[in-house]
Amino acid sequence: MSNTHSPKFDRHGDWRRWQMDELTTKQSNHTSDGEVPTAHQRKVQAAQKAAELARQREESERQALHERIRQQAEKEGYAAGFEQGHKEGLEKGLEEAGEQAKTELDAQIHKAVAPLETLGRQFSDALERLDDTIAYDLVELALATGKQLASDALRDTPEQILTIVRELLHRTPSGRPAAALAQPR
């Protein structure tokens, strides 16, 4: 009888369940008739494996380079965007601050000048009243002086006053002789 417990025989060791697609997808290192591959076949397989490893290494290096370039571009883009945003923000902030300062200054000026406007109007009204009062007083002074002078002149030289009155009667209000108005130009 065979020894089933010998080290050479393992009933379940090499056994595995067979799948239908194993025949189509299985790539064997052996030739189709179960022989050991030749030296040329091993060299071809080694070259194919080396080419695959080189392709994978190149792909890995290319991806790493691509990632470094992407990170550098992202960093540069972020820095440029940050700088541009900072510049635009600073300009907008200065502009808004200037507008706000102008508005506040206008409000403060208006607040400070408002009482002065009232004072100016009151001063202007007072000057007008003073002008009216001074004009009235000057007219009264002129009339009083004229009366005094007229009475003195009438007493001293009545004939001279009569000549002046006749002359004034023959003149227009503009001071030109009345006879000059009747003459054509």
UniProtKB/TrEMBL annotation:
<dbReference type="InterPro" id="IPR018035">
    <property type="entry name" value="Flagellar_FliH/T3SS_HrpE"/>
</dbReference>
<keyword id="KW-0653">Protein transport</keyword>
<dbReference type="InterPro" id="IPR000563">
    <property type="entry name" value="Flag_FliH"/>
</dbReference>
<comment type="similarity">
    <text>Belongs to the FliH family.</text>
</comment>
<dbReference type="InterPro" id="IPR051472">
    <property type="entry name" value="T3SS_Stator/FliH"/>
</dbReference>
<feature type="region of interest" description="Disordered">
    <location>
        <begin position="1"/>
        <end position="102"/>
    </location>
</feature>
<feature type="compositionally biased region" description="Basic and acidic residues">
    <location>
        <begin position="84"/>
        <end position="102"/>
    </location>
</feature>
<feature type="compositionally biased region" description="Basic and acidic residues">
    <location>
        <begin position="7"/>
        <end position="24"/>
    </location>
</feature>
<dbReference type="Pfam" id="PF02108">
    <property type="entry name" value="FliH"/>
</dbReference>
<keyword id="KW-0963">Cytoplasm</keyword>
<protein>
    <recommendedName>
        <fullName>Flagellar assembly protein FliH</fullName>
    </recommendedName>
</protein>
<feature type="domain" description="Flagellar assembly protein FliH/Type III secretion system HrpE">
    <location>
        <begin position="112"/>
        <end position="176"/>
    </location>
</feature>
<feature type="compositionally biased region" description="Basic and acidic residues">
    <location>
        <begin position="52"/>
        <end position="77"/>
    </location>
</feature>
<keyword id="KW-0813">Transport</keyword>
<keyword id="KW-1005">Bacterial flagellum biogenesis</keyword>
<comment type="function">
    <text>Needed for flagellar regrowth and assembly.</text>
</comment>
<keyword id="KW-1006">Bacterial flagellum protein export</keyword>
